[in-house]
Amino acid sequence: xxxxxxxxxxxxxxxxxxxxxxxxxxxxxxxxxxxxxxxxxxxxxxxxxxxxxxxxxxxxxxxxxxxxxxxxxxxxxxxxxxxxxxxxxxxxxxxxxxxxxxxxxxxxxxxxxxxxxxxxxxxxxxxxxxxxxxxxxxxxxxxxxxxxxxxxx
Length: 153
What we know:
Oligomer: single chain
Distance between the termini: 22 Å
Order of helices and strands: EHHHEEEHEHEE
Number of strands: 7
Largest sheet: 7 strands, mixed
Helix content: 25-40%
């Protein structure tokens, strides 16, 4: 479990990029190209305030990219260092995204995953996310999910 989740600072960009690349690398063969999060500009995303990190003993072990919309929060990507996976860090980051949405008084969290990331197609519904769309976008076969959030809770 991470000891803390905090907004990323400029010095976290390299670690965020490394963790994201390591976490998404296994999907390259399935998708036929690098997953979109691997090309993220973490310097720009951090400067915009869109990145959160999970730390364990002050070491970045997880990365969350969020974008605040008018009615929903877009959970753009979540990645956990492969050496720290299966410890609940990814779930903690998703829970954090939902809390950020509540704090911003948004009614939902939306996300998408690649259709070839079949584990995610089972994971997100188990966390209360509803499948709302499937479509090809930016050259990727994407599956879109949405979780409505109860006000205040």
